[in-house]
Design a protein that fits this description.
Layout lengths: L6 E6 L5 H17 L5 E5 L7 H11 L3 E5 L6 H14 L6 E3 L7 H13 L7 E6 L5 H17 L6 E5 L7 H10 L5 E5 L6 H10 L3 E2 L7 H16 L1 H4 L20
Parallel strand pairs: 1-2, 1-3, 3-4, 5-6, 5-7, 7-8
Helix pairs in contact: 1-8, 2-3, 4-8, 6-7
Length: 261
């Protein structure tokens, strides 16, 4: 008889905003409902307890294998440095720690954004500013720009989608809104490319200056499905998930260019 599968350790950035913890806990509730056979824990890179290293050391002490799933939308310093460092520090002989890929880019994130836009009543004809945290890593910022392009395609190319950032790089949300105004767009909204509330999302919304700004993405079925897909992918590999062998395979659209249902 086999024992329990590896723990799914979801690792978030952490925030001094208690609403961020609420969003992460809501996401874990959705994951548990979708996959009741998977044990799920939450760890943080800073600001909030428990630290990811503490959870990993507890796993190592009890002999529990784990898959670390970064609750991060782009691959930047936390995904490339901090999380692997915590895994190395906690690793013990006989215990396996695997690290999944970050969540983005992925069609399920576009579906989640689409759902937030619909919930906020944003019409398909409105121009969008896709607001993200921003990074000192140009590759991470390029991923956000790529997601903005994909979102524009999914919305049928009716109105532009401009990437913008709350820190580390530009353009800011206010600058992106001003550009869209200069191009003659009257209806503009801010699509939040954040998983949870926090200081940077508040800064981005302030830059929108009263425009409609959508809710963050963590507390959605799409993100829960994506976390489970990253977990399964880390266990069996992406090739296996292309068929019916992925135990928690998320529902992919036919291609990245398919519009949301």
């Amino acid at each position: 008889m086999t024992g329990p599968g590896p723990l799914l350790l979801a690792v978030a950035h952490g925030s001094s905003d208690p609403a961020a913890v609420g969003a992460h806990r809501a996401l874990l509730g959705r994951i548990r409902a979708a996959a009741p056979g998977v044990e799920v824990r939450l760890g943080y890179l800073g600001h909030t307890d428990p630290p990811v290293l503490d959870v990993l050391r507890e796993c190592a002490a009890t002999g529990r294998n784990a898959v670390v799933v970064p609750l991060l939308l782009v691959a930047a310093s936390h995904a490339r440095g901090d999380i692997p460092a915590a895994i190395r520090a906690a690793r013990r002989d006989g215990v396996r720690f695997d690290c999944a890929r970050v969540l983005g880019p992925h069609p399920l994130l576009l579906r989640a954004i689409h759902g937030r836009l619909a919930a906020a009543g944003v019409p398909a004809s409105a121009a969008l500013v896709l607001a993200a945290a921003g990074s000192a890593d140009p590759d991470a910022n390029a991923e956000v720009a790529g997601t903005a392009r994909l979102l524009w395609e999914w919305r049928g190319g009716m109105a532009p989608v401009e990437p913008a950032f709350a820190s580390a790089t530009g353009p800011s949300v206010a600058e992106a809104v001003a550009r869209l105004r200069r191009l003659g767009h009257g209806a503009i909204a801010m699509a939040s490319y954040f998983l949870a509330p926090g200081r940077l999302l508040s800064r981005a919304a302030a830059g929108a200056n009263g425009l409609v700004a959508t809710e963050p993405l963590a507390d959605t079925d799409e993100v829960a499905a994506l976390v489970l897909e990253r977990y399964a992918e880390a266990l069996v590999g992406p090739a296996a998930l292309s068929g019916d062998t992925g135990m928690y395979r998320a529902p992919w659209p036919g291609s990245r260019s398919d519009p949301p249902a």
